[in-house]
Design brief:
alpha/beta; Serine Threonine Protein Phosphatase 5, Tetratricopeptide repeat; Rossmann fold; five-stranded mixed beta barrel; 11 strands; 54% helix; 12% strand
């Protein structure tokens, strides 16, 4: 049987283990590794239960160890707060409160009320949250001289400020934040200082906006400086750093300054929040999307459409001929061009030229399969037709392409038109996408383990791709005089008219290498492949599918894509590429 002295030694050794595990958990929590922190806290709790089962302890020892148990349970609740599991966290804080209620140690009781109330704030129970904070303050009233109590007082004021702000009492919130900040700075509580500044900023901005219709750099200069300081001192704490970066972004957004500052710090906040799965992740994503939309509005080319050399409000007047006259001619199509909208069709048809060998070209002809425009496009005899948008319509891309290829039997088929772009940062309106492959994003498997993409990815014809990728001398200028760029890469295709920033963001997360998207490509290339006809898709960016879709830049994009096509088909020897 162990002697009392050996039991005491064993207890001290185990209690030291418990405290060491708590310290390890605290470090993991501070660095954002909440799973690692939880493992350490649970292991500490297991050691602690072993000690508490020992009957040889004194009442004083039991009280000390029970206090330690309450602390661990509180820290487990904190981990749940960081990942947004508030309803589960409140159960841990309730347990903490029950454990410490009969303690003489006022610090533990006040701390438990504070944590319980803080969780209620995150749950939107503001009155209940403030009631718990006030109970904690009443307990602290006679203990203000101890540093530990100053630290809790600081946190309580922060929580009260958050509640007042949520209840739109902005001035009261700012006063509470300032009291908390004064305590933190007076006693060197750096972590608390960083957290308070991050939350104080929203109240400062709100107060200033109520006092003045416009915010400027000078009015927010001190706040910006404080937020930079907060980011610096919270470098190893991802939660505070993400919070402070977000607030700095909001501050820059509120003033008349280069919007790129706001965007940068929203992106910083989002990257951190995404890595650690913070509960405000979706809010930051939404705020960043708004900034991107603002940026697009600023950067979006502004021009009078009717003044552009590539635009005409009138559809070209192309004479009609009888099919039998066509049959008696020597016309044999080199290329078929497929478009999907009237704007795309007009941009191509206006570039058709007369064929010197056939005096009735350009012309239009009607067959049982549809309407076709014939003429010389660049150096080659070409047939142009139009399908309907999407893939499900009776005259969608697949059907129209198949019929055109069966009738005209060209050397190759090209789809030309407009698309949505991936990123207004890396791309611009009018840039032309040359598809290396088309990705069918609509076909997927939805299982218990999530969504698995199973759509086809047919590649463009290598010879055609080489011709377009090497169009180094091609030039087409936007109305502001800047040149449009040629961008080759995968292009998404699906039956959805995408105009939702969240859907678009998720789409490019699934297919990060894609450059843009459209609606007809997968049907077009399926028909071409079934008839073993070389194909490629060329589409220019007209919008960003961000919830603000309009047809403003469709003529520009259609003209840019048609211009690139004309450049390539003006090369006299490209048919050699097809044998």
């Amino acid at each position: 049987m162990d002697s009392p002295s050996s039991l005491t030694s064993q207890q001290e050794w185990t209690e030291n283990n418990v405290k060491s595990l708590i310290e390890l958990g605290d470090k993991e929590q501070y660095n954002g590794n909440y799973q690692g922190a939880t493992v350490n806290y649970l292991q500490a709790l297991e050691f602690l239960y072993q000690i508490l089962d020992n009957d040889a302890q004194t009442i004083r020892d039991k009280n000390s160890l029970t206090s330690l148990r309450a602390t661990i349970i509180s820290k487990l609740g904190d981990n749940l707060i960081y990942v947004g599991q508030y309803k589960i966290a409140v159960e841990f804080y309730s347990q903490q409160l029950r454990i410490v209620t009969n303690f003489v140690n006022k610090l533990d009781i006040a701390f438990a009320y504070h944590k319980f109330g803080f969780c209620h704030y995150f749950m939107g129970l503001y009155e209940s949250s403030m009631e718990s904070q006030k109970k904690a303050l009443d307990i602290l009233a006679t203990e203000e001289e101890k540093l530990e109590f100053k630290q809790i007082r600081c946190k309580i004021n922060l929580c009260l400020g958050l509640n007042q702000y949520a209840l739109q009492s902005y001035e009261e919130a700012a006063n509470l934040y300032q009291e908390a900040l004064d305590i933190a700075r007076r006693y060197g509580l750096q972590y608390e200082e960083a957290e308070i500044i991050a939350n104080l900023s929203s109240s400062v901005r709100k107060q200033l906006s109520l006092e003045s219709s416009t915010l400027n750099l000078s009015s927010l200069e001190k706040l910006i400086s404080d937020l930079y300081y907060t980011i610096r001192i919270s470098d190893n704490n991802p939660y505070i750093k993400s919070l402070a970066s977000r607030e700095l972004a909001k501050t820059y957004q509120a003033i008349d300054i280069d919007i790129s500052f706001a965007k940068k710090y929203f992106e910083d906040a989002l990257n951190i929040a995404n890595e650690y799965k913070f509960p405000f992740l979706s809010e930051i994503q939404s705020e960043l999307n708004q900034i991107i939309q603002q940026e697009q509005e600023i950067l979006e080319p502004d021009y009078i459409l009717e003044e552009q050399p590539w635009y005409s409000s009138v559809f070209p007047k192309i004479p009609e001929i009888e099919p039998d006259k066509l049959e008696s001619s020597s016309f044999k199509a080199d290329f078929v061009i497929v478009t999907a909208t009237p704007i795309e069709l007009k941009a191509v048809v206006r570039l058709l030229e007369q064929d010197v060998d056939e005096d009735f070209f350009p012309c239009r002809v009607y067959t049982s399969s549809g309407k076709y425009y014939l003429g010389k496009f660049g150096h080659y005899k070409t047939v142009v037709t139009q399908c309907r948008m999407g893939t499900r319509d009776e005259r969608a891309a697949g059907f129209v392409t198949q019929k055109a290829l069966e009738i005209w039997k060209p050397k190759a088929v090209i789809m030309v038109g407009i698309a949505f772009g991936k990123s207004s940062i890396e791309q611009e309106i009018g840039d032309v996408l040359v598809a290396t492959e088309i990705i069918d994003y609509d076909v997927n498997r939805i299982g218990l383990d999530g969504i698995t993409d199973r759509g086809s990815r047919p590649p463009s014809n290598r010879s055609l791709l080489g011709l377009f990728e090497q169009a180094y001398e091609w030039e087409f200028y936007r109305p502001d005089g800047s040149p449009c760029n040629l961008i080759s890469g995968p292009v998404l295709s699906g039956d959805k008219l995408v105009d939702n920033p969240e859907f678009k963001t998720n789409l490019f997360k699934r297919f990060p290498h894609a450059k843009g998207g459209e609606m007809e490509g997968i049907g077009f290339c399926s028909a071409a492949n079934s008839l073993k006809t070389p194909w490629i898709l060329i589409k220019s960016i007209c919008d960003w599918a961000d919830g603000k879709k309009s047809d403003k830049h469709q003529p520009l994009a259609a003209a840019a894509a048609a211009s690139l096509l004309l450049y390539v088909l003006s090369q006299r020897t490209i048919l050699n590429c097809f044998g």
